[in-house]
Amino acid sequence: MTYHPKSDFIRIMTERGFLADCTDYQGLDEALAAGTVPAYIGYDATAQSLHVGHLMNIMVLRWLQKTGHKPITLLGGGTTKVGDPSFRSDERPLLGPEQIESNIAGMKQVFAKLISYDDSDTGALMLNNAEWLDGLNYLDFLRDIGRHFSVNRMLSFESVKSRLDREQSLSFLEFNYMILQAYDFLELNRRYGCLLQMGGSDQWGNIVNGIDLTRRVLDTEIFGLTTPLLTTSDGRKMGKSQGGAIWLNGDMLSPYEFWQFWRNTTDADTGKFLKLFTELPVEECERLGALQGSEINEAKIILANEVTALLHGTEAAEAAAQTAKEVFEKGGVGDDLPTLTLSPDELGDGISIVQLIVKSGLAGSGKEAKRLIAEGGAKLNDAALTDAGRMIAPADLATPIKLSAGKKRHALVQLG
Question: Where in the cell is it found (predicted)?
Fold first, then answer.
């Protein structure tokens, strides 16, 4: 018999493709239907911005709030000092306190755009686990918390096992990470009545640990829910592009480049991404995702507009769409393209086209730029580039020039 969710949140999670697994599907659904449920997702402060790989779980928190519950964004000011070893082949580089604080400030900018932090019953909380982890007494922690963990069981978790199977080192520091994450859930329940931890499916073992610990120490029933690890239809991890991570902070990736990332979605992923990353009705997402031929491009533009508007605002989305239209349809340069401004000193008597392609971010190395030219994929002001030895003189930059790599990636170069 099919179970029909009682709560709006579980119904939306199921319909839109957010739900991978749940520790007690029916129990959680009933708790959500009965009243306001505080729920958290943890984010370690390993970079100055969150990236597109985080966006699905931020959307989960947004839907949680929209359906009458209380999101908690837990920033890992404490756990970042250790580093999550889950499914990594090497130890994370350790960051200093100033870098962690700087990263947290950058991450907060993104959350504030998508989630509402206020004093209402459903107003989100922004917390930092350094609040309870920094002051821990090691001996007390070992005695009161450590005794609840079985090393045999911890070794059986897939995230640890995969590392050991490959005979890669797992330091004691990293091994402690899952105990600290479990302790976070216990403290959030004790301090804020948090009943639910959510995360990607790679966090399943860590989440279950927290539920077991809280049951043993506080005799409280809490829940875990995971989202699927998102890969594109060609099997790549979501959010990775040739140019690197797709950052969510506008000062690390322009709204135009962000818009362009979504516009370049493959046909097969368009319907799925509309459900996960926009708030359009499910039926509309399915209709758009089923379009064929050139019509699917309209669906991709809608996807790009909707996601960019959510994160950067409607004006930024409209400006990006307009720039794209000018670039693709009219061969114009557009006002909003990524722009490289060269000083007269940098330019000197001239600069090679290969260097310009690398400096503008259209290629990762000189070798890659030369290959792009050799394969006919590079253009200067919409004309094919054939000579990798070509020099750009100051006179060539009297007006800005447009460089292109393939049909979809462009940059302006101007003299500052």
Answer: Cytoplasm
Q: What is the DSSP string of 302-321?
A: HHHHHHHHHHH-HHHHHHHH
DSSP at 202 = G
Which residue from 116, 18, 17 is spatially nearest to 68, judged by alpha carbons? Answer: 116
Q: Which fold has domain 254-329?
A: Tyrosyl-Transfer RNA Synthetase (1.10.240)
Numbered residues of the known binding site for ATP: 240
In this structure, are residues 255 and 316 in contact, taking their beta carbons and an 8 Å threshold? yes
Residues within the annotated binding site for L-tyrosine? 40, 177, 181
- For domain 8-227, the CATH superfamily is HUPs (3.40.50.620)
CATH class of this structure's domain 339-415: alpha beta
Q: Mean pLDDT, consecutive 10-residue segments, the chain of 416 residues?
A: 87 96 96 97 88 94 98 90 57 74 88 94 94 93 92 81 76 81 96 97 91 95 94 71 74 89 90 97 97 90 96 93 74 63 79 86 85 86 80 76 81 77
For 65, the enclosing helix (H) or strand (E) is helix 52-66
**3-state secondary structure at position 20:** coil
* Sheet containing strand 409-415, strands side by side: 339-342, 409-415, 401-405, 378-380, 383-384
CA 59 to chain centre: 10
Work out the end-to-end distance of the chain between its first and last CA atoms, rounded to an integer number of angstroms: 68
Provide the H-helix boundaries in 219-294.
255-263, 267-277, 282-289
Global confidence as pTM: 0.78
**Residue set of the binding site:** 40, 177, 181, 240
Per DSSP, the residues of 114-167 read HS--SSSTT--EEEETHHHHTT--HHHHHHHTGGG--HHHHHHSHHHHHHHHTT
Say how far apart CA 51 and CA 59 lie, in whole Å: 13
Q: How far is CA 295 from CA 156, 208, 272, 283, 301, in A?
A: 48, 44, 17, 17, 10
Q: What is the pLDDT of residues 253-278, one digit of tens each?
A: 889 889 988 988 889 999 999 999 99
The helix/strand/coil state of 230 is: coil
Strand pairing partners for 401?
413
d(CA 67, CA 177) in angstroms, rounded, equals 32
The ranges assigned to domains in the chain are 8-227, 254-329, 339-415
**How far is residue 119 CA from its own chain's centroid?**
27
| pLDDT tens per residue across span 86-116 | 545 455 567 778 888 888 888 898 999 999 9
